[in-house]
């Protein structure tokens, strides 16, 4: 399985956009704000970025209280 073990030596950063970086000043992060920090993660030595899913939520538990897993 040569060539399939890249993950053993690569650095992957996982980000949860709602708590990573905001873009509009409301105190909640989002995808637009997170994108502005991708260069920073690369400069830290990151090889890939794993973006946690963002689902609709009433935000009682900062996004972990998913109200609809199927919306798109």
From TrEMBL:
GO: which molecular function terms? alpha-amylase activity
What Pfam families does the record point to? Alpha-amylase
Domain (Glycosyl hydrolase family 13 catalytic) ranges: 14-70
What are the GO BP annotations of this UniProt entry? oligosaccharide catabolic process
What Gene3D superfamilies does the record point to? Glycosidases
Q: Where is the signal peptide?
A: none
> What InterPro entries does the record tag this protein with?
GH, GH13_cat_dom
UniProt-listed PANTHER family: ALPHA-AMYLASE FAMILY MEMBER, NEUTRAL AND BASIC AMINO ACID TRANSPORT PROTEIN RBAT
Q: What is this protein called?
A: Glycosyl hydrolase family 13 catalytic domain-containing protein
């Amino acid at each position: 399985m040569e060539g399939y073990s890249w993950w053993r030596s690569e650095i992957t950063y996982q980000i949860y956009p709602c708590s990573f970086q905001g873009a509009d000043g409301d105190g909640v992060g989002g995808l637009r704000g997170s994108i502005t920090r991708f260069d920073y993660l690369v400069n830290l030595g990151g090889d890939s970025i794993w973006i946690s899913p963002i689902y609709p939520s009433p935000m009682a538990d900062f996004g972990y209280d998913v109200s609809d897993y199927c919306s798109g």
